Amino acid sequence: MSAVVCRGVSKSFGGQRVLDGLELEVPEGSVVTVLGRSGSGKTTLLRVIAGFERPDAGAVEIGGEVVDSARRFTPPEKRRVGYVAQEGSLFPHLTVAQNVAFGLSRAQRAGGRSEELLRMVGLEGLGKRYPHQLSGGQQQRVALARALAPHPRLVLLDEPFSSLDAGLRSSLRSEVMALLRAQRATTVFVTHDQEEALSVSDLVGVMDSGRIRQFGSPFALYDRPVDPSVAEFLGEANILAGIAGQGSVETPLGTLRLAGDIGSLGGPVRALVRPEQISLRALGDGRAPPSGATGTVVHREFYGHDCVLLVRISGFGHPLRARCPGRPPAQVGDPVAMVVRGEVVAWPAPIERGQ
């Protein structure tokens, strides 16, 4: 069963189309991330699902029930949806416990629901504090507890970790997602951070110009992006011009094997080579291996667990990125041999005007 279904949802503000016939289906119990750049319509989509905004066209279903269409509208408070905004939006004049209990019935408050949730999010004993007495991460935990308090059938997260520093963002993200999975809460999470989307999600929807461009598992989107723009948005990408035929493609990096499902591709193409697919070897004697290509290291970035080298090769306009485990295999200025491991994805190259 699908927990959320959006069918042909459109929304404009001041004549600007923000959602454009959007289609989305969220399986029950899943964590689905909507990934997109600023202005792609992510937050508007969440607000439409929550009922804070009404679409100009289309329909929204939650739990098999139509909650918004041309003929029907269910107000936000009756949708059983928990919403966590980017900044948490806690009430500054209420204590932590009062924030969590906001919106609960008197019976639920008396039943100790607030204390249960504070224990669940690791804030036991802090119920009498006020939001300004908490750290940013603790405030977001309170916001999550408040969203979970009324036993929602759906939880919506609007970039709730973006204002936190990198270390806290990563740890809190993992904890929150583990908690939501333990609660079996269907979750729709929007972000512009590719790492967040790929690391925590069952399914990812790449959003652009008010539409979902591609929807699938993180592995499928990373390995089989539908076009170069999605490939470049989902991590680092080297896009090479080439000529495809007979299951392979000729590129500046040599002859590369095409992925099996596109082996029949022929003619001019653009091929995707991820940086981690490129193996580098320093050329102490200046000789190239039998296959592959040679180039010169023009920049390096060392991260401890791995490194990135930028390599300039003859006949290619800008340096290629190669990601290597551990220490850099070559220094800036060194000649290197480059070999691509595994299969590559390619797309037909656009026809130039005048051809």
Overview of the structural elements:
The protein is α+β, with helices and mostly antiparallel strands. Helix content is 22%, strand content 36%. The protein is built from nine helices and 20 strands. It has a six-stranded mixed β-sheet, sandwiched between helices. A hairpin with a 2-residue loop joins strand 1 and strand 2 (16-27). Helix 4 crosses helix 5 (136-148). The chain is globular. The model has no long low-confidence stretch (mean pLDDT 88).
The gist of it:
This protein is of the alpha+beta class.
What percent strand?
Answer: 35-45%
Low-confidence segments: none
In helices, the fraction of residues equals 10-25%
- Average pLDDT figure: 88
Q: What is the general shape? A: globular
Give the terminus-to-terminus CA distance. Answer: 49 Å
Q: Return the string of H and E elements.
A: EEEHEEEHHHHEHEHEEHHEEEEEEEEEE
Structural class: alpha+beta
Radius of gyration: 25 Å
The helix count comes to 9
Major sheet summary line: 6 strands, mixed
Strands side by side in the biggest sheet? 6-7-8-3-9-10
Number of strands: 20
Using brief descriptors, characterize the structure shown.
20 strands; 6-stranded mixed β-sheet; 355 residues; 9 helices; alpha+beta; 5-stranded antiparallel β-sheet; globular; single chain; 36% strand
